[in-house]
Design goal:
There is one protein chain. The protein is mainly β. The chain has a single domain, classed as OB fold (Dihydrolipoamide Acetyltransferase, E2P), CATH 2.40.50. It has one helix and five strands; from the N terminus they run H-E-E-E-E-E. A five-stranded antiparallel sheet has the order 3-2-1-4-5, with no helix packed on it. The radius of gyration is 15 Å and the shape is globular.
Length: 94
């Protein structure tokens, strides 16, 4: 519940981070009686230089992303309780 309130009560402006995709992974996951496709992206960290952050669940344009070349825009907010959260992820414009 704290995580939900952290985002819901956060009235601050987002911070924009444009980062390069380092690697990507697409896999099929069984859910109930069906299957769903899940996406994972490792991107350059906006928090710690030389490290990566993992983004999950964003389809973006998986087939056109080229690791090492494609950049994405990550909007983060500091959170009401100081727990940074991702407000949006989108493809960077060339």
């Amino acid at each position: 519940m704290e995580i939900v309130l952290n985002a819901w009560l956060d009235t601050s402006s987002p911070t924009t981070h444009t980062v390069r995709v380092v690697s990507k992974l697409k896999y099929r996951d069984e859910i109930g009686r069906g299957m769903r496709t899940k996406y994972m992206y490792d991107v350059q960290s906006w928090q710690r230089e030389g490290e990566t952050e993992t983004l999950t669940g964003y389809s973006l344009d998986y087939d056109v992303i080229v690791p090492g070349q494609t950049r994405v825009v990550v909007l983060t907010k500091p959170g009401r309780f100081g727990l940074e959260w991702i407000a949006d992820v989108s493809m960077a414009r060339p």
